Fold:
Amino acid sequence: MAHDTAHQWGPRRLYDEVADAMAWWEEEGRPEILDFGPTVTEAGRTVWLKGEGSHVGRVD
Structure:
């Protein structure tokens, strides 16, 4: 087996998800962990990057 081969199976394509996340991280300038933060309200929980005006995801 080649060392650059990823085999995927199961209900999710985890390697594809990681590759997409890495590409997004690179596009955003490789932010550090402290560049992210949470906002919690009655409406839900979100994660932001470099300020509350820039939501990057919702936490269910």
The two ends are 38 Å apart (CA to CA).
